[in-house]
Design brief:
This is Centromere/kinetochore protein zw10 homolog. It comes from Eurystomus gularis. Keywords: Acetylation, Cell cycle, Cell division, Centromere, Chromosome, Coiled coil, Cytoplasm, Cytoskeleton, Endoplasmic reticulum, ER-Golgi transport, Kinetochore, Membrane, Mitosis, Phosphoprotein, Protein transport, Transport. It is a single chain. With 743 residues, the protein is mainly alpha-helical. Helix content is 65%, strand content 5%. A 4-stranded antiparallel beta sheet has the order 1-2-4-3. Strands 5-6 form a two-stranded antiparallel ribbon. A hairpin with a 4-residue loop joins strand 3 and strand 4. It is elongated, with a radius of gyration of 50 Å.
Length: 743
């Protein structure tokens, strides 16, 4: 009875299937006695009259079921109410775990009520709202407590990731238990356990973990000068930073591990060593420590940061230091063991340890990357800083590593050469190149350095483990492929505009091609054992480099030819030279061409190999002569004065043309090349013959022709000579006779 009165007092609305609250109260009052009567009734009636009984029995059974259900619902409502009351009382006394457990009890009662089909109580909605409000209220109180226990002192965000701001970040833990608390258990445990009961612990820890990474752990890894610093006062424990002068740009992994370990140890002692009862649905492992939960959340990010900012930098750059790397691997193992003892880590051999143990492969990757970066820097540096190379220039190399320096260095010192012409590698190596000697010329100093880098990397390869050796060999091939792709595009404009750079680039390509012929050969004993089919060669790259150098230089030659023809086009076709203005224009054009050639002769001097220089200058001078010859040969009328003036223009070319050949800086040595001009200028003799015609009388021309056997016939066709005679001489019988002899 009293149950109902209480319920009746508190709640105004029940079951849609009941007529009114009064009926309900009456029913519930009579409920217990009803049940007894029903039982007796069922027994008696059944005996008395079976036919009637079947119908009545069914009805009474349904009545009983309905009443039982109503009673159980009322009980649940009563339990919900009690739980909420007890929760409020516990919260007032700051008994957080008890309060949280009562809330969860109320929640499970409400779940049961909601699952009853056929009884959609309006009241359930109100109860749900009440529960939500109380849960939020509790979380708010817990949040307040947590903020008192764990206090972050962080500088304003604008300088978030600097060393400066790290120096000003502090974490204060008010979790140092005072004497009387030690018996009751520290408040931090009850706050965290209450969070766990309410299922909110993950979120709280997640944001704590993010702050921990951002303001404490990552700065410790990134800034070598930071040291963690701790102090314990009566009621608070403080974790902050001190800065020292760093001795290096990067701390060693050992130092970083120690700093992180120290930080996690104090956190473990003052905050994280709290065993928690997980909510019942996590059956597998109901007790976990806070450290374990936090470790799960931050380990991946922490270990990535340690790899990227600490282990990567510690990978050695030359094979001799690989031996010492054992220390790093050991300290990584110890670091992991310490973290496991504190329960931060569960599994074995994490990524961090795998990375450290895989040092050989990282060494090779880092080495290859350094090589490519160095190569790219050389390729994008200025072309015009040059060095002179001569046929006996060779690449200087450091001494080979000592074969006794560790088992993995297998330098084959005493291999017998296969051929007598083999270049032997001795210590203090100089590689002689007289087999294919290079002509004297200038190349970019960056290309010389690039070649040294290639040789050095191959030397390093011969002293490395097999895997590393293969990687290094291919990174040397990559250097050259990179050059082929990068240089022509990177320096494109200058190579087109500046004839000197085009010449240097041409030499650079020829120099590289020259070395590629023998490059694999010198290291073949070591490399061919590893690279299948004796693939340790660079010969396949040679034609490409020769082509690259040629194409660039030929493009420059086309530009120069274009300019020569452009200048000569202003010579008014060399016609009517008796007109002063025409003569001046022609004279100016010839002067400009000579000036252009002289300037080229200077910028290519001492740069191009002499034979290339002479061919190039010869080709360009020839271009000018061919154009002049064609123009004059096409004239229909040449007066005596025209002829004299044309002759003097041609004489300027013949006298000053050879002087543009100055392949060497020492004046006196250039004479020889100037005298050999006819060798390099294809139409030189033709031009000289044209000059003779301009000055000759008819008989002299016929003599020069000498029935098609004379010097004139060697340079001009009969038609051309006839055309010149018609232009130079009046139409007379003597001219007709002369023309008849030219055939």
């Amino acid at each position: 009875g009293e149950v109902c009165n209480m319920i009746n007092k508190k709640y105004s609305e029940f079951l849609p299937s009941m007529q009114s609250a009064e009926e309900l109260v009456a029913q519930v009052d009579g409920l217990s006695s009803n049940i007894d009567l029903l039982k007796a009734g069922i027994e008696n009636e059944v005996q008395r009259d079976l036919n009637v009984a079947v119908a009545e029995f069914t009805e009474l059974k349904q009545q009983l079921e309905r009443d039982t259900l109503v009673l159980s619902i009322l009980k649940k409502l009563q339990e919900f109410d009690t739980a909420i009351q007890e929760y409020s009382a516990a919260l007032l006394e700051k008994k957080y775990v008890a309060a949280a457990q009562q809330l969860e009890k109320a929640r499970s009662n409400l779940k049961t009520l909601e699952s009853r089909k056929g009884f959609e109580l309006k009241i359930l909605k109100a109860l749900g709202t009440e529960l939500t409000v109380q849960t939020q209220n509790m979380l708010y109180h817990l949040g307040e407590e947590w903020q008192k226990l764990v206090v972050w002192k962080i500088p304003p965000s604008k300088e978030s990731s600097s060393l400066e701001s790290a120096m000003h970040s502090e974490l204060h833990l008010h979790t140092v238990p005072s004497k009387e608390e030690e018996i009751a258990g520290p408040p931090v445990a009850s706050v965290l356990q209450a969070f766990a009961v309410l299922g909110e612990l993950q979120n709280k820890l997640k944001s704590f973990g993010q702050l921990l990474l951002k303001y404490i752990l990552k700065p410790l890894i990134s800034y070598p000068s930071l040291r963690p610093f701790t102090e314990e006062q009566a009621d608070v424990f403080i974790l902050c930073f001190k800065a020292e002068e760093p001795n290096l740009d990067h701390s060693s992994p050992m130092e970083v591990f120690d700093k992180i370990k120290l930080t996690l140890e104090v956190l473990h002692k003052y905050l994280l060593n709290v065993p928690l009862e997980q909510p019942a649905e996590h059956h597998e492992e109901s007790r976990v420590t806070l450290a374990e939960l936090l470790g799960d959340m931050i380990w991946e990010e922490l270990s990535d940061c340690l790899i990227q900012n600490c282990l990567v930098n510690s990978i050695p750059t030359n094979s001799s230091k690989l031996e010492q790397y054992i220390e790093v691997i050991k300290s990584t193992e110890e670091f992991e063991k310490a973290l496991k003892n504190m329960q931060f880590l569960k599994g074995d051999t994490t990524d961090l340890l795998k990375y450290a143990r895989n040092v050989n492969s990282h060494f090779a990757n880092k080495k290859c990357q350094d090589v490519i970066v160095a190569a790219r820097n050389l390729m994008t540096s200025e072309i015009h800083n040059t060095v002179k190379i001569t046929p006996d220039s060779c690449v200087n190399l450091p001494n080979l590593p000592d074969p006794g320096a560790g088992d993995h260095v297998k330098v084959q010192k005493t291999s017998k050469p296969l051929h007598n012409d083999t270049v032997n590698l001795e210590n203090g190596t100089k590689l002689s190149q007289h087999m294919f000697s290079l002509p004297t010329c200038r190349i970019s100093s960056s290309v010389e350095k690039l070649m040294e880098l290639a040789y050095q990397t191959l030397l390093e390869a011969t002293a490395s483990t097999d895997q590393c050796c293969i990687q290094l060999f291919y990174s040397v091939r990559n250097i050259f492929q990179l050059f082929y792709d990068v240089v022509p595009t990177y320096h494109k404009e200058n190579l087109q505009k500046l004839p000197q750079l085009a010449a240097i680039h041409h030499n650079n390509c020829m120099y590289i091609a020259h070395h590629l012929l023998t490059l694999g050969h010198q290291f073949r004993y070591r490399l061919t054992n590893i690279l299948c089919d004796g693939a340790a060669t660079f010969v396949d790259l040679v034609p490409g480099f020769r082509r690259l150098g040629m194409e660039c230089f030929l493009a420059q030659m086309r530009v120069q030819k274009g300019e020569i023809l452009e200048r000569l086009s202003s010579a008014r076709n060399f016609s009517n030279m008796d007109d002063e203005e025409n003569y001046c224009a022609a004279n100016k054009a010839i002067r400009q061409v000579l000036h252009q050639l002289k300037r080229l002769g200077k910028v290519w001097q001492d740069v191009l190999p002499v034979n290339v220089y002479c061919k190039a200058m010869g080709t360009l001078l020839n271009t000018a002569l061919v154009e002049i010859i064609a123009r004059i040969a096409a004239l229909e009328d040449i007066s005596a004065e025209d002829a004299d003036r044309l002759y003097s223009l041609c004489r300027t070319m013949v006298e000053e043309g050879p002087q543009v050949f100055t392949p060497l800086p020492e004046e006196d040595k250039n004479k020889k090349y100037q005298e050999e001009v006819p060798v390099y200028v294809q139409k030189w003799m033709t031009f000289k013959e044209l000059m003779i015609i301009l000055q000759a009388n008819l008989q002299e021309i016929v003599d020069q022709w000498a029935d098609g056997k004379g010097p004139l016939a060697a340079e001009f066709s009969a038609a051309e000579v006839k055309s010149l005679i018609r232009a130079l001489f009046q139409n007379t019988e003597r001219r007709a006779a002369a023309l008849a002899k030219i055939k």
